[in-house]
Amino acid sequence: MEKSQVLRTSYSALETFKQCPQKFKFQEIDRIKVPKSKEAVFGTIIHEALKFFHSQYPISPTLDELLNYYKDNWKPEPFQNEQEDMIYFSEGIRMLKNYHEYHLKNRDKSVVLDAEARFEFPIEKPGENRKCILAGKIDRIDKLSDDTIEIIDYKTTKKLPPQSSADSNLQFSIYCLGVMSRWPHLAEKGSGNIKLTFYYLKHGEALATRRDEKQLEEAKEEIWDILNEIEKNNFKPIPSALCDWCGYKNLCPMWRHKFVKHETYDAQQINKIIKEFLELKDSNQKNNKRLEELKEIVNNYLDQESLERVFGEDGYITRLMQVRRDYDMDKIKKALGPLDKWLIKKEYKILKASKIKKR
């Protein structure tokens, strides 16, 4: 019997591939370590502070204890200067104060089951001898007063996304499957017993959603679709706004040239070539735009004067007329249908101003 092929991945790895296959290769296949961005470091420190806060249950730390933990674990290294360091640090203080106030108002509504809860579970590829292990870590899992299980994921992002983002998010589908695998008795109650909440710390807002069985099956299919793409991919980079937060820019073929110190060609020569290329490209765009404008003017004049050619001092412009026949489609369909040679194609008379000829 053929041995089953077992893959191992996580939501973050799948999401990295969707964002940029090249980054996925550097990160997940080549295992190249790079310094974390300031946003990532900031998010990690906030998450660690909240883990400390909820790990002390049932006696939660005071606000001063929470803020002191945050201060003691602050890392100024990734920030460019003292001002930037202070801005991020102060923002963290504000988030934690607001979160502490929010928790005091809602602490009697739930019991913390776990913080930074790790999980892993298998999914099999239907009809194939393949298995994938999904692993991950959930920020917090609570049990609510009505026995609902709430999965909570903290977000430190600047923007508050629409509700639809939470409703279709693959991360939450994986988390739901992870919790049902970790506690099988929850699976017996169905995924409807699990509440999924993104808590946006910057805004003090929560987006809650749920998953049904159909959505979870669709998530498994999506995971296998991504894995299949990974297996056949050539890992080309996909430039986007996310490049500004990527630590692999000095290795990426889309950005590496900015970091090259010793070049085969003289730097001045390359800069001159690039400048000339961009100027020519800009000039061509302007010329093409003006040509379309002139064509429209000439076409209007030809229509107005009932002409097909207009003469100037340097030459003439002819409007080419192409006539394409329009057929009786019912007769053709009747004739070709039984022969399996029927296709639909209508052709029309087209007038186009195009050719400019010098005399």
Brief synopsis:
It contains eleven helices and nine strands. Strands 1, 2, 3, 4, 5 and 6 form a six-stranded mixed beta sheet that branches. The chain has a three-stranded antiparallel beta sheet with strand order 7-8-9, covered by helices on one side.
Protein traits:
alpha+beta, extended, 359 residues, 3 domains, 3-stranded antiparallel beta sheet, 21% strand, 6-stranded mixed beta sheet, 11 helices, Lambda Exonuclease, Chain A, disordered C terminus
Structure description:
This protein is an alpha+beta fold. The protein has 3 domains: 241 residues, Alpha-Beta Complex (Lambda Exonuclease, Chain A), CATH 3.90.320; 43 residues; 52 residues, no CATH class. It is 45% helix and 21% strand. A hairpin with a 4-residue loop joins strand 3 and strand 4. Strands 1, 2, 3, 4, 5 and 6 form a 6-stranded mixed β-sheet that branches.
The CATH architecture name of the largest domain reads: Alpha-Beta Complex
Label the structural class: alpha+beta
The radius of gyration is 31 Å
The major β-sheet equals: 6 strands, mixed
Elements, N to C (H/E): EHHHHHEEEHHHEEHHEEHE
Can you give the helix content as a percent range? 40-55%
Morphology call: extended
Regions with little confidence, pLDDT below 50 for 5+ residues = 344-359
Quaternary class:
single chain
Instruction: Determine the strand fraction and express it as a percent band.
Output: 15-25%
CATH class of the largest domain, named Alpha Beta
CATH topology of the largest domain: Lambda Exonuclease, Chain A
Mean residue pLDDT: 84
- Tell me the count of domains: 3
Distance between the termini: 80 Å
